[in-house]
């Protein structure tokens, strides 16, 4: 696909960063058809203008980048998504892989890296910044694999745990016994490779809520 055929929407709540990105993209021949400084605005532009690509920050008001992507896809959007963020921790990479995001770049990356990512994504490939160490990506992949080991019943219980609902309330909601819920919790802990402890699963579920609720 030629540059002039690639339409792009950008979204970031930092005006200077957004302007700098847009200026660089336009200077290099790309067509910016919309820009947003919050998640709601970004989602509206994506659904209205159907861009080839959307370059999104994660930390935006109203909706974060991952939420924008999830909602856009639920509405049938065919736009390809590239995250452009300061975050390179495995927690964020797990979410990126969970949502099957097309590209993930760091704001410290050069424009050469951004353009390389755009080319890869437009060609149908997935691209993660070369600035990200391979270990966090491996850890993110492994964590997602462990989550995929859970049964539908275990996922349902994990979602309730992530809402800080007690065992008794979960048992009542699902019409199961406390003993059955405790057995499920034990199985989930084992499958996720967590250390056994009173709050180990609850703490893990709170940290990974976005990933859990994407299942």
UniProtKB/TrEMBL annotation:
<dbReference type="InterPro" id="IPR011006">
    <property type="entry name" value="CheY-like_superfamily"/>
</dbReference>
<feature type="domain" description="HTH luxR-type">
    <location>
        <begin position="143"/>
        <end position="209"/>
    </location>
</feature>
<dbReference type="GO" id="GO:0003677">
    <property type="term" value="F:DNA binding"/>
</dbReference>
<protein>
    <submittedName>
        <fullName>DNA-binding response regulator</fullName>
    </submittedName>
</protein>
<dbReference type="InterPro" id="IPR051015">
    <property type="entry name" value="EvgA-like"/>
</dbReference>
<dbReference type="InterPro" id="IPR016032">
    <property type="entry name" value="Sig_transdc_resp-reg_C-effctor"/>
</dbReference>
<dbReference type="InterPro" id="IPR058245">
    <property type="entry name" value="NreC/VraR/RcsB-like_REC"/>
</dbReference>
<dbReference type="InterPro" id="IPR000792">
    <property type="entry name" value="Tscrpt_reg_LuxR_C"/>
</dbReference>
<feature type="modified residue" description="4-aspartylphosphate">
    <location>
        <position position="57"/>
    </location>
</feature>
<feature type="domain" description="Response regulatory">
    <location>
        <begin position="7"/>
        <end position="122"/>
    </location>
</feature>
<dbReference type="InterPro" id="IPR001789">
    <property type="entry name" value="Sig_transdc_resp-reg_receiver"/>
</dbReference>
<keyword id="KW-0238">DNA-binding</keyword>
<keyword id="KW-0597">Phosphoprotein</keyword>
<dbReference type="Pfam" id="PF00072">
    <property type="entry name" value="Response_reg"/>
</dbReference>
<dbReference type="Pfam" id="PF00196">
    <property type="entry name" value="GerE"/>
</dbReference>
